[in-house]
Amino acid sequence: MIISREKSFATDELFELYDSVGWGGYTRDMAKLQRSLSNSHLVITARDDSGRLVGLARTISDDETICYLQDLLVHSEFQGRGIGRALLDHLTDRYSHCKFFFLSTEHESSPDGEKSHAFYRKMGLVPHHEQGMAALGLKIA
Length: 141
Fold this sequence. Notes:
This protein is an alpha+beta fold. The chain is about 35% helix and about 25% strand. The protein has 5 helices and 5 strands. The chain has helices spanning about 10-20, 25, 30-40, 85-95, 110-120, and strands spanning about 1-5, 40-45, 55-60, 65-75, 100-105. Strand 4, helix 4 (about 85-95) and strand 5 (about 100-105) form a beta-alpha-beta unit. The longest helix has 12 residues, at about 85-95.
């Protein structure tokens, strides 16, 4: 497995990766997904030995105090092999100087949330309320 920084992707490989984890909201407008990746602070990928895109993580950050993990996904056929951990470890090392490293995800009671919350907790991330913090949001679209 090769982890590297990337900014441009073939549409079909992005579609396959995001679709494999059920993130259809992203794949409905592939041009928008491509722009989102281009506008991210950092995009890292995991590729297998044949070059197939099997994982991706992207951040939004001021690179001083805050890093927001926007996406972390591993192709459904490759989950459970340490790829998600490797991507997250790479990012936490890269942003170790920042005061906050955080993400928003579906509630743990959602179908995807139960699995993702267990993974994130195993990686050391904890909900805001367990850190004496609060997360607020406004859904505008």
